[in-house]
Amino acid sequence: MPGMTLYDKLVASHEVARIDDEHILLYVDLHIMNEYTSPQAFSGLAARGRDVLRPGQQMAVVDHIIPTHPVPAALRVIPDDASSRQARNLKRNCDEQRIALFDTTDPLQGIEHVIAPEHGMILPGMVVLCGDSHTTTYGALGALGFGIGTSEVEHILATQTLVYRVARNMRIRVDGRLGVGVSAKDLVIYVVHRIGAQGARGHAVEFCGSAIDGLSAEARMTLCNMTVEAGARAALIAPDATTDAYVAARARHLDAAELAQARAYWATLRTDADAVFDAEHVFDAARIAPFVTWGTSPDQAMPITGTVPDPQAEPDALARLALEKAVDYIGLRPGAPIAGVPIERVFIGSCTNGRIEDLRVVADIVRGRRVADGVRAMVVPGSGAVRAQAEAEGIAATLVDAGFEWRQPGCSMCLAMNDDVLRPGERCASTTNRNFEGRQGRAGRTHLMSPAMAAAAALAGRIVDVRDLENLQ
């Protein structure tokens, strides 16, 4: 028999029972909830007279609907009645079921996919699920993470298991070295562009190669976070010394003996040399430039040196229609360069790029400079801990001096579920993960890019190549 992939090993170690050739009952180590995907699940439990089976293996966060106005954490409120009701319901359910909650006024509140790793909740080898598609983030630490639906949330609360259809295996190798001004965000947009929005559909993707080895733990989170935009059901990177250092510094609940035992297990989390993948891709990191999306899907992207595609050059009628619709919505002219397109808004944050490393990059670029006239630029840290660290390091002061708004943590303008939204027609340089129609506000226009590129756009008032900034070494 061929060897096992890392994905195969994670699934096998959590298989409770085999249902049929495609489905198993999967054990869940940690289940994370937010305010908008859990209410129906708790209601379903109550209707059946059931309690949460293992409250200690649940965690909840208020993040999608919370405003990020820069008021003290203790004074944060949710003025929208429907959103406030969602948050209150989550608190009531968590109190009744003894589930840990990062609530509205908690100084450590933030985005679920930022909070969990920074508090040492994610360990290599775990299965971590959440009612949010970007749960793939945790694959950066060698954990199997993926998003689930509301009915599945209820099943996990009741049984700590999930009826799971096993995915196929895909390997993406990226060798070489990313160039100056090129980041993990550029890498993942490039990958999604190359393989397409459905290119990894039905697959668990394992990243490997020297370029991946060179990424920090937080950069790997960016990569795994956005792999779902290629249709992936999971994204994984095998644990290594980088993973170990990140996790060991945060998993304070493990004593010395437990950590030693865990490390011995983590060392086994490797794909066997003779394992067979269902699909493979190989890319050269040196060929990747800073990338920007031009359309209304994350795969509709180009290097900063590119031009807007001409739909009439597309021979396939359906593909041509999709291109025409995207170009019309985004308001760009076919054949026009993406560099130089004016922007009105800049958003830096989200579960993709709201970590301390991201904010350090932005601060380094904008230090001593000013946001362009007519541009409203916001920085929303991914958590209360990130916010406090950025303030302690002087990052926040640098951003404010440059003309950025320094906000409280939350999902914010990643999606239009709170009051941080684009106005119709506004064009935004955004570090988020999706550029769908209306994603950041009705008729808003989103261009996905890295924190460095978004910072450069804020300074210039238009989409520019960060590599052209004179202070970038």
TrEMBL record:
Per UniProt, the enzyme's principal EC class comes to lyase
Q: What is its EC number?
A: 4.2.1.33
What residues does [4Fe-4S] cluster bind to?
351, 411, 414
Which pathway does this polypeptide act in? Answer: Amino-acid biosynthesis; L-leucine biosynthesis; L-leucine from 3-methyl-2-oxobutanoate: step 2/4
Quick check: keyword Metal-binding in the entry? yes
> What InterPro entries does UniProt report for this protein, alphabetically?
3-IsopropMal_deHydase_lsu, Acnase/IPM_dHydase_lsu_aba_1/3, Acoase/IPM_deHydtase_lsu_aba, Aconitase_4Fe-4S_BS, Aconitase_4Fe-4S_dom, IPM_dehydratase_rel_enz, IPMI_cat
As cofactor, the record names: [4Fe-4S] cluster
Pfam families under this entry? Aconitase
Protein name per Swiss-Prot or TrEMBL:
3-isopropylmalate dehydratase large subunit
